[in-house]
Amino acid sequence: MAQLNYEVLKASGYKGYILEKAPEKVMQFGEGNFLRAFVDDFIDIANEKSGYNGKVVLVQPIAPGLADLINAQEGLYTLYLRGSEKGVKVDDKRVISACSRCLNPYGEWDKVLDFAKSDDLEIIVSNTTEAGIVHDTESAFGQNPPISFPAKLTRVLYERFTAGKKGIIMLSCELIDNNGKELLKCVNQYIDDWKLSDEFRAWVNNENIFCSTLVDRIVPGRIRDPQEVARLNEQNGYEDPLTDVGEVFGIWVIEGPEGLEDRLPFKAAGVPVIVVPDVTPYKKRKVRILNGAHTGFVLGAYLAGFDIVRDCMHDDTVRGFMNKMLNEEVIPTLPLDKKDLDDFAAAVQDRFNNPFVNHELMSISLNSTSKWRARNMPTFLDYVEKNGQLPKCLTASLAAYIAFYSNDIQELNDKGLVCRRPKGNDYVVSDDRWVLEFYAARKDAAPEALVHDVLTNEQMWGQDLTQVPGLEPEIVRILKLIREKGALEAYKEAIA
To answer: What is the pLDDT of residue 439?
Structure first.
């Protein structure tokens, strides 16, 4: 069977939208699964729905990468968006034609710099992992290419400046706080390191817009089941080793100045991209609702016998516990429009009920101490301050965290803290070593002593949680309930 390209696609009888030729308007550092299922999907829809008429030039950030494969397919690839919307199973296919080519800077740095000077270039996008936005002192102006991504970007901008071209819109998608601001900081550091001109510095900082952004779409990536691959190839009439898979839900929040939304092609296309003056509330929304939901219910659910997230959504007690936690404890503490928060929380249940993803609870359980502190504790403390009482679900969640880390401890070994589940199988708690050693040292502690030591551990929580009125005796009571009757009983009690 032939591999996907424009000629093969036409012969296959594909009837969807395709844009074969258009000006190259976007430079994208990153050619992996996420950007192709997220940014390039949105640009493809903008080409169709709002007449953006723009192509993306991908730049492979590391070697080896996908450049040869992408170019062999003339930038085409098949994207499946799969999941659940309002309880209905969704499996949508689209052939993405937004990408024109992929450059390998480790052999084609001159082509990257040539494209930097293009009159058509408007936007630069990046997703070079959390470690990508760093100031590396080993990066030099004359390297082909410079080592770090910010150094590469500085060279790209310098070529554009010296060619007398207009500034660009920089959309950073790396998963760090203030990603756009941190990237600009690195660029300014390279301007210092390389002793570049004050005029260039002024152009970088005044004529370009560096946007911090928040990205949200789960992208499982390639299909791994050989039988499903063969079935789809037969159905499509071509082979596509670049096939990508993402969830249906997606939203891109871009922090930018007034008027930026009209310069970007997304609003007119109706894709879920919004421009706001401050991305912080939306990050808080994602962390406290989506991530907080995961951390809030999975540990107790695992002790109760569940293994994957989707099965939890089919249980009235666990689903009810999560929804009460979100609707009555989390949402009232957040500084955004309530309908927006309600809609986001409703989408969470659909996302967790994705029939195509077996998201294991044990994988979510990794490093739950720092996760509970970052995702759940701020809501817990805000609720207490606002209402003068303990939130039932979040309090039960904290007790379930302690139960998960201390349930019938067997041993501490190189892999982690081995505990035993109520239904008899061993499981391994993975966290910072000091956390595991803390619990291992209290293997035989009574509930009262264990809870006191956990809540007073300021290394865990940044404060002494026994100072929260009524918390310590309530956690002791719920921990005993979990150990005697099971975590499901504690969840039932919280939603009664």
So the answer is: 98
Task: Give the domain ranges of the chain.
Answer: 6-276, 281-495
The residue-averaged pLDDT of 274-283 equals: 96
3-state helix, strand, coil in the chain (%, to 5): 50, 15, 35
Q: Check if CATH label 2.40.160.60 holds for domain 281-495.
A: no
Mean pLDDT of the 268-276 span: 97
Contact 188, 204 (CB under 8 A): yes
**pLDDT tens profile 20-53:** 999 999 999 999 999 999 999 999 999 999 999 9
What are the tens digits of pLDDT across the range 374-389? 999 999 999 999 999 9
pLDDT tens digit sequence for 224-240: 899 999 999 999 999 99
203, pLDDT greater than 90? yes
Ranges of H-type helices in 354-486 = 361-364, 368-371, 377-387, 392-406, 433-440, 447-455, 458-461, 471-485
Model pTM? Answer: 0.89
- When the pLDDT of each residue in the chain is averaged and rounded to a whole number, the result is 96
- Tell me, what's the pLDDT at 332? 96
Mean pLDDT score, 326-331: 98
The pLDDT of residue 214:
97
Tell which CATH architecture fits domain 6-276: 3-Layer(aba) Sandwich (3.40)
